[in-house]
Request: fold
Amino acid sequence: MSSISLDECARQVLETVPLVMRTVRAEMRRRRTADLSVPQFRTLNFLNRQAGASLSQVAEHIGLTLPSMSLLVEGWWSAS
Reply:
């Protein structure tokens, strides 16, 4: 087993995470419908895994404030 310093490990993680996130975003965009935003897609996926989650829980997971999450959901329903 090789020994790696904590700094080297952190450097490798910081180099890798942006590449992984780019791939995740591209896949999300590929799988969503044209009328569904990425935050809406992430919201649906979260609710699929966490049925019955509160608006606050969804907002925290998505990284939005509660008012922004409310607007996202309201805009989504009024567009449907």
